[in-house]
Amino acid sequence: MINGFKEFIMRGNVIELAVAVVIGAAFTGLVNAIVTGIFNPLIAAIFNADTLKNSLTVPLGDAELSFGLVLAALIQFLLVAAVVYFAFVMPLNTLKENQARRRQAGVPLDPKKNPVTDLDLLTEIRDLLAASTGAETVSSRTAAAPLADATAARPAENAKHTL
């Protein structure tokens, strides 16, 4: 039971998730400061109110409907989504596309800037094994060829591996 817990904690995705939660909490504070300090006063000035939350209120009997409060939450959500997309998602997608384009073009990647991934190593091992046995690789077969053929191509017992 202890070993199972240790394996669970040592998984990379658990650590990544914990880091994401901590960074997300810090990032929320930054976005809240931007919305509260910059956007709320600008929008409140447009609606002639001291804050956006206090603007666009409609009296309803003893209560008030606060459309400004809803508008402030909507703006904050859109700002968070925009910052996450434009600051994180879009640059990472562009980086991945550039790396994929360089790999397809056969340009060697700088190992310091572009570390070798597990997928890269597994692909290289597969290609080396296929080359040593003369078998086709999975990616070079047509869609009509059965996958069972891949199990028929086994490396020789005395094959020397470079890894």
From TrEMBL:
Key word Cell membrane present: yes
Protein family: Belongs to the MscL family.
Protein known as: Large-conductance mechanosensitive channel
SUPFAM superfamilies tied to this protein: Gated mechanosensitive channel (SSF81330)
Keywords: Cell membrane, Ion channel, Ion transport, Membrane, Transmembrane, Transmembrane helix, Transport
Quaternary assembly: Homopentamer.
UniProt superkingdom: Bacteria
Record's bilayer topology term: Multi-pass membrane protein
NCBIfam families linked to this entry: mscL
GO cellular component: plasma membrane
Coiled-coil residue windows: none
Gene Ontology MF term list: mechanosensitive monoatomic ion channel activity
Annotated TM spans: 14-47, 67-92
Source organism phylogeny: Bacteria, Bacillati, Actinomycetota, Actinomycetes, Micrococcales
PANTHER family: LARGE-CONDUCTANCE MECHANOSENSITIVE CHANNEL, MECHANOSENSITIVE CHANNEL MSCL
Subcellular location: Cell membrane; Membrane
Protein purpose: Channel that opens in response to stretch forces in the membrane lipid bilayer. May participate in the regulation of osmotic pressure changes within the cell.
Family matches, as InterPro entries: MS_channel, MSC/AndL, MscL_channel
